[in-house]
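Study this chain:
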Amino acid sequence: MADLVRYDRDGAVATITINRPDAMNALDIATKEALVSAVETAATDSAVRAVVLTGTGRAFCVGQDLKEHIRLINTDPAKVWDTVEKHFNPIVTALATMPKPVIAAVNGVAAGAGASIAFGCDFRLVADTAGFNLAFAGIALSCDSGSSFWLPRLVGPTRATELLMLPRTVSAEESLACGIATSVVPAADLAAAAAELAGKLAAGPTLAYASIKASLLHAQTHTLPEALAFEADKMALTGSSQDHLGAVDSFIAKERPTFAGS
């Protein structure tokens, strides 16, 4: 059986691929455990400076595997809900906090927790045939995997309420217009576009990217004075980095800087 989640590293770029195309990349327990392992590996591997998360087949990820969900309701109900804390939360936390940029290459529909996982990435490159659906309320469930945190910040509270309470498929074009997508590309060009962006990010100032990412996340739950203090700490950290000092030298020499990531 093929790996449920593939992990490939090419130089400084790690690509994580959810690989259950026959199930539209639905997340059963085995797949969630493999995905937790993959994102945590990418987060802690110092050789990785950019990450791409994508899916195979027609879907990016349609969230929880409902066939398994129904089976567990009838046989082992305790496992039905502990998966949120055991699997979904660690996946989203690792994506949102790892000290390197993460690109969601959304190759097809992203639904339920699959959409939430994409929201937790730093960039969302969306195929023109793809879409998002916050499907939770359609099966009488609340939302999980960070959708209540990310979606209002992407589209505003009014639209987030609509999309969560009245779920529908948001097309690639609408996702770009409302702030979900970073960019929309032809489906045939998605892999190449993701590789190009990942390569650019992997060659960039990784410590600066990590500090910007941490500052954005910190500011969302802190006051302005606290955000300013956090920024000052990160500015001091990056200001003493080899990448910054080398970039200043390159500027003076009128040369293009190169970044080692530290």
Notes: The radius of gyration is 19 Å. DSSP finds eleven helices and ten strands in the chain. The chain has two domains: 5-202, 206-252. The mean pLDDT is 96.
